[in-house]
Amino acid sequence: MKPTEIDLHKELKKYFGFNTFKGLQEDVVRSIITGHNTFVIMPTGGGKSLCYQLPALVLEGTAIVVSPLIALMKNQVDAIRSLSSETGIAHVLNSSLTKTEVNQVKKDITSGITKLLYVAPESLTKEEYITFLRSVKLSFVAIDEAHCISEWGHDFRPEYRNLRSIIRQLGDVPVIGLTATATPKVQEDILKNLDMPDANTFKASFNRPNLYYEVRPKTKNVESDIIRFIRQHKGKSGVIYCLSRKKVEEIAQVLQVNGISAVPYHAGLDAKTRAKHQDMFLMEDVDVVVATIAFGMGIDKPDVRFVIHHDIPKSLESYYQETGRAGRDGGEGHCVAYYSYKDIEKLEKFMSGKPVAEQEIGFALLQEVVAYAETSMSRRKFLLHYFGEDFDEVNGEGADMDDNVRNPKKKTEAQEELAVLLKVVRDTRQLYKAKEVIFTLTGKVNAIIKAHKTDTQGFFGTGNNRDDKYWMALIRQVLVEGYLSKDIESYGVLKLTHKGQAFLANPHSFMMSEDHDFNENEDEAVVTASKSTGTADEALMAMLRDLRKKVAKKLGVPPFVVFQDPSLEDMALKYPVTLEELGNVHGVGEGKAKKYGKDFVELIARYVEDNDIVRPDDLVVKSTGANSGLKLYIIQNIDRKLPLNDIAKAKGLDMDALLKEMEQIVYSGTKLNIKYWIDEILDEDQQEEIHDYYMDSESDNIKDALKEFDGEYDTEELRLMRIKFISEVAN
Predict the structure, then answer these.
(1) pLDDT at residue 192 above 50?
(2) CA 658/CA 637 separation, integer angstroms
(3) What angle do CA 125, 131, 133 make, to 5 degrees?
(4) 241: which strand partners?
(5) Long-range pairs of 356-363 with CB within 8 A, sequence gap ≥ 24
(6) Fold of the CATH domain 3-203
(7) What are the HRDC domain coordinates in residue numbering (predicted)?
């Protein structure tokens, strides 16, 4: 039967049981069966695999499907085999097969039974396989996850680079590239590397209107926040992504201890455990999988209701793919990412060991993630712009499904600033990336600016009435609105667009909203109650403050010695009415609860009674005790008067991390006698001076202390003295 005579709807019904195609599927299938090179960009959950499976089943010969992951191939082969009485209809050819199994595969292909042959790119480099495949009839070659070809993709695989030359050896067969995420740059790269500039290109919309996007600041309470979120979505399936295996294990444990059914999943677990955990999730024996990105490739669970990023991913492609695992059935999908710039700095550190070209790309991709997290414009519009798609943020589908749209930031007129920005891009001859453009605007110099003599120009510093953050926010919004574009080849260089030139010729109003500043409340107080997750009871809070003042006065100590503010806020959120419950409040340990707690729990109990308050039974987040081992180690070795830097070194901590642990120990009521260490660095008069300051101070904030002493002491000295002070006076 000629390809043109095939009744596609009949075949679709016969093999897959569907009456109609979804989206672009029908056009793609027609392109493939008529022998055209084809390029398909279709988001996860859009029905990508059917695009090559159906043509393979109806065409003569065997289709080769190149795929990067063995697990993915296995899933697909099982799915195809379930459609036919012949097990040989689909096979895998990879390093895991025995000689006998390889012979069976060859036999089934030769006799025309096999319609789909899944191979890893490495297998295609084997001479014997190439020779064999040249001797049989092939219908086409499909390259799944084609973004692996591009080093601009989020999942670059060097072995994908040689695919074109290998396919040439197989003879004149049509090639189909498929990917679920690709920026314009990656698309260009794929077509170039597969040498098919003439390919029929099909691009589905990347908009997933049922997904709600939200970014939250990553505070020290991120675990409590996650637990609270999961409890609000009780009984629903979700995935939590972390960047390291260690973090996956930790979070999974914390969830289990707090009564949430969760399992870890990462490449460090043996294959059997991984398969078991994956099945438990698919069969709904557990609600949550905590995973590294190894999880989810080819996981076809339609009703994942939330995807949480404990750590922000390395690129927006990864983010889009991972959030795309939520709500594939069109139902609710809540995507929450926790963001702190510190995580970005960690990722940058990891990259510093890589080749320069790779670092450049890595940094550029990371900056896009930062821009997404910090922007206050519609997140959907921002994401879709990144994938080369326009979105109408007023009438578009899913327009109100993100935190920025629901809680808009104030907008200000930026017509003049936009003109200044566009002129600087134009007058620096469109050579600079955002960083250098901002340096030029604010009048700062670096090597690149010196080399181009930009600092001698009249426009240098014309924007110094605004800070870097302001200009960065403006650049991000102007890019999405199309006044500037980022040059692809020299990733990140800003160019003026036609729209930008038209604006300079005829300026008009431009309203901008300022970026989120996720660092503004990162005071280094030992414990910070996360503001975003629940609101403290203000009336109770006022009563607790009064009581704290009274207790402090009676004992002749500053109020913060009794309990810190975040502890009071947590009490006004959790309503602890016993000393044991008080011990679960932020920054309150057993010792502290015993010493000061009685009056506080009595007050709260009365308040709860008088106001008929239903106490939340779910806000007590138990810790796994993983950290208590470290705390015990610190306490024992300080008792032995070991140098603090030795204690830190032994546990792989820097001084800042060790001080944080020590602060948590003393603030929750345990004594640490560090006089032996402080005597080495401060004399008696200095110690007395700082001690008196804390005694008379309203707050224990280090910034206030630094201001008071105006450079006489550094942060570390003031923190050490604060630990000594709390230890002696409070505990």
Answers:
(1) yes
(2) 12
(3) 85
(4) 291, 309
(5) 357/151, 358/151, 360/491, 361/151, 361/152, 361/491, 362/314
(6) Rossmann fold (3.40.50)
(7) 534-614
338: tokens are: 């926790």
Q: What is the DSSP letter of 514?
A: P
CATH number of 626-730: 1.10.10.1390
CATH class, 531-610 region: mainly alpha
* Mean pLDDT for the chain overall: 85
User: Considering the domain 211-406, what is its CATH architecture?
Assistant: 3-Layer(aba) Sandwich (3.40)
Identify whether the C-beta of residue 534 lies closer than 8 Å to the C-beta of residue 619. Answer: yes
Report which of 144, 159, 304, 156 is spatially closest to residue 238, judged by C-alpha positions.
304
In the chain, CATH 3.40.50.300 covers 3-203, 211-406
Q: For residue 277, report the phi and psi dihedrals to the nearest 5 degrees.
A: -65, -40
Q: How far apart are CA 234 and CA 404, in angstroms?
A: 25
Query: Which one, of 248, 227, 320, lies nearest residue 290 by Cα?
Result: 248
Among 45, 32, 43, residue whose Cα is nearest residue 6: 32
pLDDT at 425 over 90: yes
Give this prediction's pTM: 0.66
Is residue 24 within 8 A of residue 204, CB to CB? The reply is yes
Cα 25 to Cα 48: distance, rounded to the nearest angstrom: 8
Is residue 71 scored above 80 in pLDDT?
no
Alpha-carbon distances, residue 616 vs 15, 231, 287, 545, 567 (angstroms):
52, 11, 22, 22, 17
Give the pairing type, strands 484-487 and 38-41.
Answer: unpaired
Residue 310 has a pLDDT of 95
